[in-house]
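Person: Show me a sequence?

Helper:
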Amino acid sequence: MTELSFAKSFLSTLDSRPIKVQSDYVADLKTFEPKGPYTLPRMPHPMRRPDKSAAPGSIPAINVSLKSLRNPPLDLSLKSQSLTTSILDLKQAVSESVGNTGIEKIKLLYKKKPCSDSKTLKDVLGDEIAPGGEAEFNVMIMGGVAGTSEKIGTPVEEVPEVVMSGTEERSEGKDEAPVAQGISGNEVLSTEEFWSDLQGFLFQRVRDQEVAEKALKVFRGAWGKET
C-alpha cells in the first residue's frame, strides 16, 4: 500500500464517522475494546522510608571521630553531633583537648579535602552518613604542639635554669655568641617532629594534602641521599 492510497483510505474512514461526539454519546460495550491498566515505571532508586523512631521535627545526629597520627597524636570521639554543627565547633573541641591550641593552627580534612570553618556537617557530608552513623575527620595542627609527648596531657619535664655568677659572666668574652640549647644541625633533620612541621608548612602553602605529601617525600628522599 502506497502512501497515497493509505491517506485516501484514512480520510474516507474519517468521513464515515461523525465530526463531533454528541453530549449524550454512550459507547457500545459490545464493540468497545477494553484496554489494560497503565502502570508507572519503577524508580531507579527506591525511596527511603521515613524513620518512625525519630521524633517529629527533631534534627538527626551522627558520631564524629577526629584522628591525627602526627604530633600530637589524637583520637577524639564526639557522640551525637547534630548535622548543623559547624567545622569551627569541631576545631574548638580539638583545641580544648590539646591544651587550648589556637584554632587558626588547626585544619580538618574529610577525604583529604580541607573543610572551611563556615560549613556544617550537613554541607560537608551531604547524605553519605545516615543518622546514627559515624564520620571520620583527619586533624592537622600546623607546627604541632610544643612540648607534647606521646599522650596528650603528659606533663613536660622542666629543665632547671643555670644562673651564672657575676665573676663567670665577666670572664666570658664580650664578642662570643650565645650557645644554642638542645640539638642542632643534622640531628634536627633526623627527628620526626621536623618532617611533621615541614609537611604542615607545605600543606598550608599549597592547600593540597596529596601534593604536600609528595613534596615531603621528595625532600626527605633527597636529604637521605646526601647523608
In short: The beta strands are 61-68, 74-82, 106-110, 113-114, 134-141. The longest strand covers residues 74-82. Helices lie at 3-15, 87-97, 121-125, 166-171, 186-189, 192-206, 209-226. Residues 147-160, 167-171 have pLDDT under 50 and may be disordered.
